[in-house]
Amino acid sequence: MSCLFCKIVAREIPADIVFETDEVLAFRDIRPAAPTHALVIPKRHIQGVHDATAAEGALLGALLLAGREVAVRLGVAESGYRLVINHGADAGQSVFHLHLHVLGGRGLSWPPG
Ligand code: 5GP
Ligand code: ZN
Fold first, then answer.
1. What is the pLDDT of residues 78-99, one digit of tens each?
2. Residues with beta carbon inside 6 Å of ligand 1?
């Protein structure tokens, strides 16, 4: 198993975990791009959002709901936050295990570069 995020799921690599269910795991991003920056991943390996099948719709929903919960737990649900999924090279995906970015705090600019 060479996938970095699968190793975090397996607790082979440490992470600052902020939320967990049977299906998903959320942890702080190691290089925060915003004052609050966490990642939510499915525990099961899926390369990217475009690799998820229609049968995995419930899992994709669980990812979004977990993103909301992470926003609550990290204290940005009221002030505002952004949920982002990068897919593929042009979007800058660098870890090929599906992940939802939860970005919050002052100074989020739009549109992203
Ligand atoms: P992407 O560019 O693929 O959408 O996002 C990958 C994210 O994973 C980046 O924001 C990067 O900082 C984060 N990341 C990469 N390696 C690690 C790691 O070992 N631990 C954690 N917590 N985050 C990581
Ligand atoms: Zn993986």
1. 999 999 999 999 999 999 999 9
2. 4, 15, 27-31, 39, 86, 92-95
